[in-house]
Amino acid sequence: MNFSNYSVLFRLSFLRLLAFCIPVFILVSCGFFDPVEESETEIIEVVKDSILIADKFNSKVLLMGMEILMVDQYFETIADLSHLNNQFVEISGCTDSIYNTVPEYCDGYKMVALNYNGKSGFVRGDQAFELVKSINTKKQIFNSDSIEFIATGNFGIGVSDDEGLTFCDFHEPTLIQDSKNNYLGVVRMVKNELYQGDYAYFQLSANDMVAEEVDRVFYQNDTLAANIRAHYQEGGAEFLILFYLDDQSRYWAEIVSKKLLEY
To answer: Can you say whether residue 23 is alpha, beta or left, with left for phi > 0 and alpha for psi between -120 and 50 degrees?
Structure first.
């Protein structure tokens, strides 16, 4: 959820802050944090004679994408899984190599392996979002019920790689888990004068420009609310956001106030 259009010079002091704010991804099994030799990350273009081989592990991911295609090990389409958009599935591993259809590093992704309706195949890793640990999120208990904000990370090129910051632009939704309403999923953003972003979902950003965190979760006139703090390279901001379910059991977030902070 990038609340600001600030475009300022990169500073070393912000790098130190960012080091503590980037979510601690649990994608270790995919090799994101494995030690490697000093060499540039290889981007392999998707070609018909490529063979996909996955490192095996089990995890639950949220699939997101208007067109989600399952392919075989040669990248031939074997099933259309677009109907699983915004649904959780089990995956059985991911490739070690990074693939892309164009020679642009930031658009690269690993392929994740899954079984569906008796078929085994792969989907693009930038369409698969795993629940990850993050110091920027929060869980709040209200009597016997709980509200938790959960960070996600996909299998694409993120904010950093083995060689440091990537400066890639990417989106990873922050989910909400509401025990009272038995809800775990994405939160859609309400567009108003305080939010005109292109991304349709609530997210806590952690990149080279901004680091956002949940500061406080509470109820305001029976409506779930949260204070979100954003730390920019210079200064910051605090946002009051209201969260509510619609009649289709979908969660929405609406920014109702913004206050600039000076450090």
So the answer is: beta
